[in-house]
Amino acid sequence: MHNYKRVILKLSGEALAGEQGYGIDPNVIQSIASQLKEVTELGTEIAIVVGAGNIWRGMAGSSQGMDRATADYMGMLATVMNGLALQDSLEDIGVESRVQTSIEMRQVAEPYIRRKAIRHLEKKRVVIFTAGTGNPYFTTDTTAALRAAEIEADVILMAKNKVDGVYDSDPFVNENAMKYRELSYLDVLKDGLAVMDSTASSLCMDNNIPLLVFSITEEGNIKRAVQGNDIGTVVRGNS
């Protein structure tokens, strides 16, 4: 068993909504914060990329006829709200954290500066990356892949709130769906597996960044993931 030294945790907006499916569930965000505290106590440097599906979905907005770029910018702003809520929960239990945004809003958070982010991590602060990449048409999955490459993270931990890994078909529809223990990014792209979008998968593959897909609903799973326990599904550059 080994501890990863520096990780990126990808949190979907839905993971923050919990059972209610919308908005931010205070109990869920407190549970995530306390799990993150456990991880920082291991000495692991942790950065987080948050989604916004619990507040706003750019794709849904554009399907309703809204300009895609506008819809995506609204999603980016929603990720900042999630990031601030997470920061508040972390600081509440004594975990130092910083929110960085890809769209400048200095009164609210720091602008994303790579070297500054790395410095915070070295000082064992949790860094929360918000506002996606700052560009429309890119998902927060792609943000996680990009930031992981930039800060030289050992792994991306993709926390899911409904599934505990990658399956060959939808486990909610097919009760015989098979869970993969290990996959390559080529498999993911070739078979169209809904792990992350193709831009993010390609970026991870090209930069040889492993991905661990696991369930966040089981208490203590973030720590297990960081310690390299056998949970979820591992996706690697080449299998």
TrEMBL record:
Domain Aspartate/glutamate/uridylate kinase: 5-215
A GO cellular-component term linked to this record: cytoplasm
Keyword rRNA-binding: no
Involved in allosteric activation by GTP: annotated span: 18-23
Signal peptide interval: none
One Pfam entry name: AA_kinase
InterPro entries given in the database record: AceGlu_kinase-like_sf, Asp/Glu/Uridylate_kinase, Uridylate_kinase, Uridylate_kinase_bac
Family recorded in the similarity comment: Belongs to the UMP kinase family.
Protein name: Uridylate kinase
Organism: Geomicrobium halophilum
Top-level taxonomy: Bacteria, Bacillati, Bacillota, Bacilli, Bacillales
Annotated gene: pyrH
